[in-house]
Specification:
This protein is mainly beta. It is built from no helices and five strands. A three-stranded antiparallel β-sheet has the order 1-4-3, with no helix packed on it. A two-stranded antiparallel ribbon has the order 2-5. A hairpin with a 4-residue loop joins strand 3 and strand 4.
């Protein structure tokens, strides 16, 4: 897939106050995927979208959310 979107969700009673991502593109010397979205998409969800650049191998993206009491 050329574009991948992943999310991280806060547990009940918490709200998202920040977030980030981790990209794993093993064995590639080409440029990594482009991160085109890295933001809160609701009060409890952090979303990350990565678009394939010149990578010829598979890559994975993981979203992380930093949560606080609501």
């Amino acid at each position: 897939t050329a574009t991948v979107t992943v999310t991280a969700t806060c547990p009940a009673g918490k709200v998202v106050i920040g977030g980030g991502f981790f990209v794993n593109a093993p064995g590639t010397s080409n440029e990594p995927p482009f991160i085109t979205e890295n933001r809160a998409t609701s009060a409890t969800v952090w979303s990350v979208t990565a678009t394939k650049g010149s990578i010829t191998r598979a890559f994975t993206v993981q979203a992380t959310a930093t949560c606080a009491n609501a």
